[in-house]
Design brief:
- The chain has 175 residues and is α+β, with helices and mostly antiparallel strands.
- 29% of the residues lie in helices and 30% in strands.
- The chain contains 3 helices and 13 strands.
- It has helices at residues 51-60, 89-98, 144-173, and strands at 3-6, 11-14, 18-19, 24-25, 33-34, 40-44, 47-50, 67-71, 84-88, 103-107, 114-118, 131-133, 136-142.
- The strands form 5 sheets. The chain has a 4-stranded antiparallel β-sheet. Strands 5-6-7 form a 3-stranded antiparallel β-sheet.
- A hairpin with a 6-residue loop joins strand 10 and strand 11 (114-118).
- Helix 2 runs antiparallel to helix 3.
């Protein structure tokens, strides 16, 4: 590998100077770059790979089938080891759904009613009252109290679901 990993920061650095036809870098320069989706990428064996996945694999080995590396604080370029954890795809989707930027309550015109919108919602069938709209899932014409209670109910449902997944996983691990 032509790069070094700084465990404290989660950054990759070049080991040596290089001057090619298209690329130039000096030893100690950052070797990772931010991609369009906000993740850090680094070259490994001529391939561009996600830095958070590579960090996990360097430190712990191959990522087990069915698991993903999640950024706990939802900052995709924060690859400090303390910010990374393994989760199932379902858990990762639910955590994303719980993030504040995914859901919001907003007034519906000047009518005194509100709507609640989620940009993404895994397993929307758990919340059939939501309508599918162009920008996600929405439920409208609620009082402010109803809207706030709905957000709390969805959050509690998701957290309960995640707790059940963790309990089930612990049972499997203990067998």
């Amino acid at each position: 590998m032509k790069t070094l990993l700084d465990i404290a920061t989660g950054y990759f650095y070049w080991k040596s100077d290089y001057s090619g036809s298209q690329n130039k870098h000096k030893a100690g320069d950052r070797a990772d770059i931010k991609c369009a989706k906000g993740y850090m990428k680094v070259k490994q064996d001529g391939q561009s790979v996600c830095a958070h996945r590579l960090i996990y694999e360097i430190l712990f080995g191959k990522i087990p089938d069915g698991l993903e590396v999640d950024h706990i604080n939802d900052i995709r370029d924060d690859n400090r080891l303390s910010n990374l954890r393994l989760v199932t795809k379902i858990e990762n989707e639910w955590h994303r759904c719980l993030k504040a930027k995914n859901m919001y309550t907003q007034p519906l015109g000047k009518s005194g009613t509100y709507f609640v919108r989620f940009k993404s919602m895994p397993y929307p069938e758990l919340f059939p009252e939501f309508n599918i709209v162009k920008s996600g899932y929405q439920l409208g014409k609620l009082s402010l109290i109803e809207a706030e209670n709905l957000v709390l109910r969805v959050k509690e449902s998701i957290e309960t679901y995640l707790d059940k997944i963790q309990t089930f996983q612990q049972l499997l691990d203990n067998q």
